[in-house]
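User: I've been going back and forth on whether these two constructs are worth ordering. Before I decide, could you fold them both?

Assistant: Sure. I'll take them in the order you sent them. The first construct and its structure tokens:
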Amino acid sequence: MPSFRVRFLVAVWAMFACSAVTAADMYGKVENGRVSILYSDRQPDDKGYVLFMKERTGQITLTRRGQAAVTTNFQPTGQNAPRVVPSQFHGHILAAAKETNVEPALIRAVINVESGYNPQARSHAGAVGLMQLMPGTAQRYGVTNRLDPEQNIRGGARYLRDLKAMFNNNLQLVLAAYNAGEQAVIRYGKRIPPFRETVEYVPKVLSHYKKYRAADL
């Protein structure tokens, strides 16, 4: 099968065309402080790209800013499909979204990538729970039990709300700050820090966010 590549910046969802894609893996890297995405059926020649999602299929429909808006439509397979929100968390997500004016789809996408909806999840860095709150973040937002799903989701949503205000609703920077800390984003000139984990994290959450919005989950 001939190689098919589409390069675009997540910030503007650039490029013009609509093309069919079959079994294209997703690679990402930071270029000039923004995440650059490459869809390819083989490892890119540019070693700066790292693989973070495999076998994306479906239609790609992308636009350059200032031109007619069109949509992106991927049909995810296997582990790339968005997890259905467990019913015990659904109400907490909606309540936190209403309180903070943060889209439920964004909260769900963060939970999906952060913990896979495991309320007992713990990271080596000390983050805990569904939205992987660090101790300082939990204290800042009044979370006394990070393992409690309701408190954890509310605290994470409040943090997303404040990051959206801090970075003028730029979701790339919001998510970069959620992963690496707002000071890291500021230190790098309000650009995505060139940390491998963050470079992979931002487009992964954005991908799930778009799928949750499209599915209205």
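The second construct, handled the same way:
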Amino acid sequence: MKVSIITIFYNAEKFLTEAIDSVVAQTFQDWELLLVDDGSTDGSSAIAQEYACRYPRRIRYLEHDGHRNLGKSISRNLGIHHARGQYIAFLDADDVFLPHKLTRQVTILEAYPRASVVYGRTQYWYGWTGKPNDLKRDVISKLGVRAGKLYPPLLLMTRFLKNGGIVPCLCALLVRRAAVEKFGGFEESIQQLYEDQVFIAKLCMGIEIFVDDGIGERYRQHQESSSAVAIQNREYHPLWPNPARLAFISWLAKYLREKSIRDPGLERALRRASRYPWLYVCITALKTPPYVMKEILRFIGQESKRAMRWDS
């Protein structure tokens, strides 16, 4: 088995079928799909089980003991534990792979044996609704670094700290399983927000990574996603100082100390991120697409109105 794809899901019946079908449609066919049910209470469990019955040699259904809901990191680690492939990819239940994703990325890792990870660009997908205005909002992520080359450990992490807008989506990665196991998979103390960036940070600080210019997946933007719900609940905003990012920065500082990782550029970037969170926000905002800036301005306007109501 060449590639293990891990899809965790929780109450994802609206999109899960499309995600699975995008794996079945891959031009590269030496894969297995691990569907990890994080305690769903809707019809998504039945959808996953039906696909596992239809493709018994290719698709497996996994769940926690007692059908419990244990969170993203624990669920992905369950998938990693059962993975048999040489490479591992991650596809969330509301996203889709483009048909040539695995073909392109497997070819790159075969051609660059020093690379343990490859990632490319991702389509931020609003147009899935079919509405003309949403179709206009679709945008391709920016790499922020030169494509078509291999990057040594630490360099990408330093860039990501300086500009969070260029951190790749988790679904963009194809990782050698040996690298995933070397760094212990996902950090189970961080479950819902920034759990993907913690995993990416581990990889960036310990192995060589190839950055590609290809577009391999569609990252669906909708109001029911975990990040959108966190924004609505005022727990998180991608361009706003927030507890989730501060927890990530704290974890990163501790990790560097524990692993005795020393690099002047990375340490400077981490100090700035720790001491001046607004500087990170401003830099990221300056490099943000216009449609996101409109969202930020709308958010600031809402906060100002709330503040005025409290003052009065």
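Notes on the second construct follow. Strands lie at 3-9, 31-37, 59-63, 87-90, 96-97, 117-125, 139-140, 149-151, 174-176, 209-220. The first strand starts at residue 3 and ends at 9.
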